[in-house]
Fold:
Amino acid sequence: MQSMPPHAIGSGTVSFGLVSIPIKLYTAASSQAVSFNLLHAKCGSRIKQQTFCPVCNEVVERSALVRGYEFVKDQYARVTDEELKALEGEASKVIDIAEFVPLESVDPIYFEKTYYLGPDKGGEKAYRLLADAMAKHDRVALAKFVMRGKESLVLIRPAQGGLMLHTMYFADEVRSFGEIDKGESAKIKEGELELALQLIDGLSKDAFRPEQYQDEYRQRVLDLVNQKVEGKEVAAAGPELKRAQVIDLMEALKQSLAKKVAAQPAAAEAAEKKPLAKVKRGEPAPAKKAQAGKK
Structure:
């Protein structure tokens, strides 16, 4: 299937000192989870959701809805879309860089969503200048930006030869970890930490390779749907995960290490024997299958 060309979801300006860089915003990632419609079990028809007013006892059209902020129980201050839009102002379209910091100083807990930034017409040189300078100096930029009716703290970082933008939570939106029990009262026995370190070393790799992780549950759901489309009787069942009932932590660490060591030669041998998949020319295309994210 031919991929669709990237479509900008918005535009703005990155302000870097006295330099203004017109940019376009692109979605960097999207969920591929399998989506379902809600049906009426009796007839199999897709249902329609309606907005209902219990006081007037009637269905309300979307055009008759207004926004309201509940300041006390069952009392609301009405706010129009025009009033909210006016509060954004022209400045909200400018991503005014406030400071540059090392990326490692930013806790990932603040990250929300990721977008690609591309230069808009006339902004190519300034865009390249900022991307190259940030990469050379090993710094990321912090700013504020209003997007889709919400002001966000944003982080701009050089990556893959361009610039990415991460929307972030503000400090008062991140819950404190201080009230959570972290097991400080537990006593670590002698040798347990050393075994844990050995286990971590055995499972450690030099880099994160996202392509080696696949959504196996999504594939099982799609297989189930395709079998139902073909009229087959199926019994849904997930894979069984067998775990040894080991209560002693030291013994569990030892067994984990032994299992890891034993698995390494088998994995290496399987990788050597695994044949490469070949696609024959002129082979007929497979029948259409259910795809993730399609309704």
About this structure: Helices lie at 81-88, 124-137, 192-203, 216-229, 249-273.
